[in-house]
Amino acid sequence: MTNPATTNSADHSALATADAAKSPTDTSGASPAQASGQGSTTIADVVVQKISGIAAREVPGVYELGGGAARAFGAVKGRIPGASASAGQGVSVEVGQKQAAVDLEMLVEYGVSIPELAQDVRNNVIDSVEQMTGLEVVEVNINVNDVHIAADDSDGQGTGDRVQ
Asked: Taking the model in full, what pTM does it have?
């Protein structure tokens, strides 16, 4: 991997094995430009990371991506004028020559079926990455680390607090 910010502790041996098994002259799955010697295309890890993050956030029921520390940092960063939250927050990827693996950390809305949401997120991430990059997505691992409860968003006004 070339981007240390997207490192991942998961073992993606299927990805490494599949890429290592392909010989440099094997062009059976290559695009016409690669097969004809017209050049090569390299896709950076951060590209797959951002596509995956945007695709995951598109699914209703996903409140936010990232672990507690990443969300806290993103909230602070979001208050700085001119700064924006990273599309890749909460996303780790491993990208090979023809395959990619994605790991997501997410916070879900209360009341949503987590198994159904995970499958919807997985399908949307796979479709988006494969369509935009041509890489085969071998796995999308999802870690749901919290549930968002709408009542947690209230600022304390009108809730009967004794001290204002």
From this structure: 0.66
